[in-house]
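Our collaborator T.R. sent over the components below with a one-line note: 'Predict the complex.' Nothing else. No constraints on interfaces, no templates requested, no preferences about which chain binds where. So this is a plain run: every listed entity goes in together, and whatever single assembly comes back becomes the starting point for the next discussion.
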Amino acid sequence: MGSIYNYEHPFVCTDAVVFTIKTQEADSYRKLPDTYLRVLLYKRPVEPYRDRWCLPGGFLNIDEMPSDNICRKISEKSHVDRCYLEQLYTFCDLDRDPRARVISISYLGLMNEEESKKYQSDAVWFTVQNTSDRRPVFQNKELIITEPDFGFDHFGIVKMALGRLQSKILYSNVIFHLLPLEFTLTQLQNAYEAILWKKVPTANFRLKIIGLVQETDKYTSDKGHRPAKLYTKK
Amino acid sequence: MGSIYNYEHPFVCTDAVVFTIKTQEADSYRKLPDTYLRVLLYKRPVEPYRDRWCLPGGFLNIDEMPSDNICRKISEKSHVDRCYLEQLYTFCDLDRDPRARVISISYLGLMNEEESKKYQSDAVWFTVQNTSDRRPVFQNKELIITEPDFGFDHFGIVKMALGRLQSKILYSNVIFHLLPLEFTLTQLQNAYEAILWKKVPTANFRLKIIGLVQETDKYTSDKGHRPAKLYTKK
DNA sequence: AGAATAGTGTCTCTAAGACAGTATATA
DNA sequence: TATATACTGTCTTAGAGACACTATTCT
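Returned assembly:
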């Protein structure tokens, strides 16, 4: 079966939808230290889809695992060391890349705020916010991105990753990849609400998640109110 | 960026884990018309892994969608027209094929018993049964297959597909793809139990699923006991 | 009546949701 | 004391699980 070596076969690339949570407001001029979900995008420097916003990723080498490929791309683009990755979906549409048949193995990536600060200038964190009809809108200080501003099929990939994250935090532990090693239950709840785009009653939330966390003997030391106990992932 | 055209890139293939449910016992000599989960395998006629049991699938053509590729392969192998397919996972291990770097886009397939009868002689339906430690064992009239008898990484793919099916029937409607258009609630419960490898109390099961089905005005006409109402998927 | 399969009523326990309450820090 | 955030008690309701019960066909 040497015939497999000379048939024209699809190219393979990776794309990563890397989310992070902003839990603390570095800009002290802001009154409300809200918690936002953010996604990593970069402006494409070449054709096709030049100057459109795209996901980090790239062509898969013949001796390379997709997760290594993505770590390499994210590290180049954002100097990030540790990022949780899980496979999301493999996009195979015939016309998703105008150059050739390229299938994309996409990944959902989660990193905490500390890691997310190490990004380069060509990669930008966009807040992922809700609209009235629950479609995501992406925003940074200067820009608002909606569907037509993405390159390739990357808007669809981001939407699927967001849906996966929203459903997966209901029954798994993935949310802890978005938080620092030690966190308060309020931080955890804020992250939960930022992802699900809805408020949950505090008492019920704590009953639900108390079995997933391990309390420490440390407390926050903010001024003017009761300190909060710090927890770690159990 | 013409450089993408002359780099050595991975091959792409598909693999489908097609399940069906045997709800009615054609062999009338058997006393117990038990319900079993079955999976479609075929004995590989060429190297590598010659004579090992493998999943239907094959190399993806450059202008072909994976689902079309799989339908083509299943139709060749089993003359089957309609099969529900959903993407399962893309397997990328560097050494999963000794010939070359081949990534496999795998699919979970579900078909009902009527469709499953149209298989060719080189494809065989194996029952998927439980062992004491909840590992699957595959069996037909002559053979019992366990891990070492599969080719490639196909045992791992089957295990993942089984896990996906087992978790997905708890919160979705996929189970109806395994049943005929009209079915009794007992058939539905038997299928449910055959997939999950455990018994559930009838009253609770019916309360749980009654919202997912639509009753018809038809009944079964078995002899010697009360007829059962036939339902369709809602 | 008896056998066989179909189908239901109801009790308990647990978890989700709503909401009002208490606790502990600083100014 | 006020204020700001942290944290809890408890009522109600919905669903899961267990189990005993009733219903309808044919022989």
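Summary for T.R.: The longest strand of chain B covers residues 11-22.
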